[in-house]
Design a protein that fits this description.
2 domains; binds glycine; nine-stranded mixed sheet; two-stranded antiparallel sheet; BirA Bifunctional Protein, domain 2
Length: 318
């Protein structure tokens, strides 16, 4: 079984092989941007590249970015610990094209990485494309639909609305239609009762989004209007912790090796077994989430750094 460190490295190696420059995570606290307090997505540090205000160091970049979703437009705080797949702080694996490749390559590479490198079961994957929005004069994303048809049968290509399939950084800023990849992690018996397509984007804990491919074409201005960006870009965000669940064949982020050493140590310290009561399980997940957030936030990590954890006294890659 691939460890979480191997999963992370495989992502970076894959995009390096596609001529991407690998960069370290940016700090999580945002400076000089009144629209954002914390980095809430992999693309946030690159906002000025999308807007054309700065020139990126390369046209293709990939990284794993520390993100915090506890305020503003993307706020998962109420879900943390209550469910098994949202976090305060999490890692977003991302590949970016700044005016270089667009939908065709982004879609092809996301499929290649998931099915040929990580070897995820194709029959468990669903994709979504933007259905369009008449009020905003935005068309159905036919181009993404047509690219997906080469890899996925049409009953697995679902149409999503503006809420799920038009990604915006905040109230203003770069934005565009997006195409998500979801995975069905349920057992065969449950799948036989209800098809996965029915459960995509319904909040089911085992039918979850793992990767979002955003096609940045617009800037949402402060007055709410959309203006076309000077160039077309790709912004993708894959939830590292969820990807580990899928690859390691687990049911919950907290069962992967990203969190299980912390959960084990919490069991030892508290004398309470994880999995015996919903109330204590939630509490343990919240503690495990916050501890990881604390370490990730405080550690000046590159993608390979290891640190000795004060909680369990073992070495972790954050
Ligand atoms: N920027 C893509 C995402 O956060 O889903």
């Amino acid at each position: 079984m691939m460890t979480s460190s191997e999963i992370r490295q495989a992502f970076l190696d894959f995009f390096k092989s596609k001529d991407h420059k690998i960069v370290p995570s940016a700090p999580i606290v945002v400076k000089n941007d009144p629209t954002l307090m914390f980095i809430n997505s992999g693309m946030a540090p690159f906002k000025d590249f999308f807007l054309g205000n700065q020139v990126p160091p390369a046209k293709r970049i990939a990284d794993t970015q520390k993100c915090l979703r506890v305020s503003g437009k993307h706020n998962d705080l109420e879900e943390v610990g209550v469910d098994t797949y949202h976090h305060t702080m999490f890692e977003m694996l991302g590949n970016w094209s700044f005016g270089d490749y667009f939908k065709k390559d982004a879609i092809a590479w996301s499929w290649e990485l998931l099915t040929e490198v990580y070897k995820l079961d194709k029959s468990k994957l669903y994709v979504t494309v933007f259905e369009g929005d008449a009020k905003e004069d935005l068309a159905f994303d036919q181009e993404s639909y047509d690219h997906w048809k080469q890899y996925v049968s049409e009953d697995r290509i679902l149409r999503g609305n503006k809420k799920d399939n038009f990604w915006e950084m905040g109230e203003s800023g770069p934005c565009g239609p997006c195409s998500e990849i979801h995975i069905d992690l349920r057992d065969a018996a449950d799948i036989a009762k209800t098809g996965g397509a029915e459960l995509v984007n319904t909040g089911h804990p085992q039918v979850i989004e793992i990767w979002n491919n955003v096609f940045m074409e617009f800037n949402r201005k402060a007055d709410g209007s959309l203006e076309k960006l000077p160039a077309q870009h790709v912004d993708t965000g894959m939830g590292f912790e969820r990807l580990c669940v899928a690859i390691q064949g687990k049911k919950s982020n907290y069962d992967t090796d990203v969190f299980s050493p912390t959960i084990t140590r919490l069991e030892q310290r508290s004398g309470i077994k994880y999995g015996t009561s919903e109330k204590t399980d939630i509490a343990m997940r919240v503690i495990a989430d916050h501890i990881r957030g604390y370490f990730l936030h405080n550690c000046r990590w590159s993608t390979t750094i290891q640190f000795r954890c004060r909680l369990c006294d073992s070495s972790h890659t954050p």
